Amino acid sequence: MDGAGGPGKGPSHEALQSLSQRLQVQEKEMELVKAALAEALRLLRLQASPTSLQDSGMPAPTRDSSPAAPPGLPPTCTLSLVSRGTQTETEVEMEPSPGPPGLSNGPPDPQGGSEEPSGTQSEGGGSSSSGTGSPGGTGSPGILRLVHPPQRSDTARRNSSSSSSPSERPRQKLSRKAASSANLLLRSGSTESRCGKDPLSSPGGPGSRRSNYNLVYFIACVVVLYRPGGGPGGPGGGGQRHYRGHTDCVRCLAVHPDGVRVASGQTAGVDKDGKPLQPVVHVWDSETLLKLQEIGLGAFERGVGALAFSVADQGAFLCVVDDSNEHMLSVWDCSRGTKLAEIKSTNDSVLAVGFSPRDSSCIVTSGKSHVHFWNWSGGAGVPGNGALTRKQGVFGKYKKPKFIPCFVFLPDGDILTGDSEGNILTWGRSVSDCKTPGRGGAKETYGIVAQAHAHEGSIFALCLRRDGTVLSGGGRDRRLVQWGPGLVALQETEIPEHFGAVRAIAEGLGSELLVGTTKNALLRGDLAQGFSPVIQGHTDELWGLCTHPFQNRFLTCGHDRQLCLWDGEGHALAWSIDLKKGIFLNSPSLLSQETGLCADFHPSGAAVAVGLNTGRWLVLDTETREIVSDFTDGNEQLSVVRYSPDGLYLAIGSHDNMIYIYSVSSDGAKSSRFGRCVGHSSFITHLDWSKDGNFIMSNSGDYEILYWDVAGGCKLLRNRYESRDREWATYTCVLGFHVYGVWPDGSDGTDINSLCRSHNERVVAVADDFCKVHLFQYPCARAKAPSLVYGGHGSHVTSVRFTHDDSHLISLGGKDASIFQWRVLGAGGAGPALVTPSRTPSLSPASSLDV
């Protein structure tokens, strides 16, 4: 009926909405004020003289003496460093304070969730990795950057040269790999010119010399700063810190010439409620991890494809290329965040952009079948007054390549490009061309002066070294070649096949090099001694996850046909098995088509069962890595395998609607069929054993909950309410009496992919289809229960599991192929849950292991 308003639609509702909007605006203004204050304090620290600090008796600023807590961090939280061997993590110690049950960061939002602030600082140890890349293949672009600490002396020197090299494939909406498909890098100046030599002026703390660098790469929605060597964790140890301000997948990175500020661009997306998330560029401080600026909100389409800071003028300008059909190229004033110029670039994919280190009016872009040289007249810094004119690179007698993924500026002003034909082309400057069409014409043009065939297959990375030589990385041949003047090959090495092809190159200390590969590995070494992995990970969608019963280890498996056992303390890969090789079974051709989808450890820890997508399941010895059992049940995929708490039985849930029960030997090596549970009308999704090992609770694809008496002959229990208060050894079923409060209103049954109760039965972790990890109090038996919400994944979260002591939570990303290891804060020790309401434990990212 016209004019009939529903409940809550009157003037009071409108006033409430108006107040809510004003509150949101004020909160955003406060975040900007805090970020501006943090930037001002950082600049004051940079200008402060170490000598004056020593004379006045004041300690120099260190990383531990940050000016203020990130916005939104509870005032009762304090940060303390916890060192474990060669890793360093930041632990938040929470003091008890009154508040609503189940929340540690204030009252819930209207949806009952509470998410961490965007600028939250977190540190973790690690050898981890991975990144983002397109679900369509392994060639999607990623970014790998080196960040050197600024010089803390009387004379600040900030100069750097940049080289960028993106992937051969066209950019797509979602990226999957970071270190693996990392194909853009920025090399800062020499480490010696950026390191504070006075221990008091070092941000590393009293008595420490900050002679290391940070390697920057992204994983889904998280940007990782990783220190391969040294660092606060101890001699030779590495560490991770995370910028988590993005709301969707990060697509590109650029490091400011000052070596501190970082720009990262994200893709467009939608939130849980279907509202669009606009692409934007974040400029943030790599020391405080606070966001300083948001550039281009609402100005880009689809996503931010490439970024570059100007170098000749100390990073005064930022060039951005978006992912629209025209690939709009724009230049922005970094200090004001205003757009100075914009122009349509090309309809073809743009894979790299960069300013000339000698002249900020010269910009170069490259990508699919093109190299463009742009002349930019800045318009005296007035927004919209700048003009961009283009000169297309002409290949002439040389074969025009399909892709030009990378280029690098040489000190003499020439440009080297690497293309998909394996050639390195040298583009030299020529005199000004007054006949160039356009407003004012190009100041100068470039032409090909030399060509060298460097690799078999595409060249994904070029890197200008401090000694003036150039490194090139090949895709198909996996070679890393050092070139001298005139493109004379000086030295080369080949990356082992199991690490993948070269995707990114960065210089470390001295002769040390870091290489990112197509198989999500980060390698460290040099051309003479070879390379060893510091980061390894998966390369395709992940589903299988299980944690060790008494060690801080966990196993993962997925569509890349890799079985990986991870060391959660060392943040490293313990071992991996490639199912594609089929070296363990009599039918390698069949195995090469199989992928691991689920896994579980035997209570003894000596064996692990892995379910495959063909109905086959394997039992592996965790020490020898040999397959000790090989069975097949049906011809459809297995979705869950679970050992009973006493280790005497193994339950296997299949997509043929049946649960297969096996008797197991004490060491888990031998199994024999015990029976089948028949009664589900759809495929099995989850199952759990009771604490006495006699009963099973199972969920199916049609949202059915059934209970089974295994000891009584795998009988279906008709009276489900008899099992309502039964104690369960684990709780991973997403449907049940104890966890129905985790489901939000309007769920269609597929919104939650995984659930796991902590071993102390205090908290439940939930992985949803909207890239989030939730924490609820257990039991969660009331509707619309409040929760803590954590972002970071760029795809649906497929699985979550607590480690044996509940100190960490592991979460798997789907298409982003990432593994996140979260530190659980405030969980308390093992034991039964408290009777009185207590605060829900919260999470802090310890590392991102893969990934």
Ordered list of secondary-structure elements with their pairings:
Elements: H1 11-47, H2 50-56, E1 77-84, E2 87-94, E3 113-115, E4 123-124, E5 144-147, E6 163-164, E7 214-219, E8 222-227, E9 239-243, E10 250-255, E11 261-266, E12 269-270, E13 276-277, E14 281-285, E15 291-295, E16 304-309, E17 317-322, E18 328-333, E19 338-344, E20 350-355, E21 362-367, E22 370-377, E23 387-392, E24 406-409, E25 415-418, E26 423-430, E27 445-453, E28 459-464, E29 470-474, E30 479-484, E31 488-494, E32 502-507, E33 513-517, E34 522-526, E35 530-535, E36 542-547, E37 553-558, E38 562-567, E39 572-578, H3 588-591, E40 596-601, E41 607-612, E42 616-621, E43 627-632, E44 638-643, E45 649-654, E46 658-664, E47 671-678, E48 684-689, E49 695-700, E50 705-709, E51 715-716, E52 752-757, E53 763-768, E54 773-777, E55 787-790, E56 797-802, E57 808-813, E58 819-825, E59 842-848
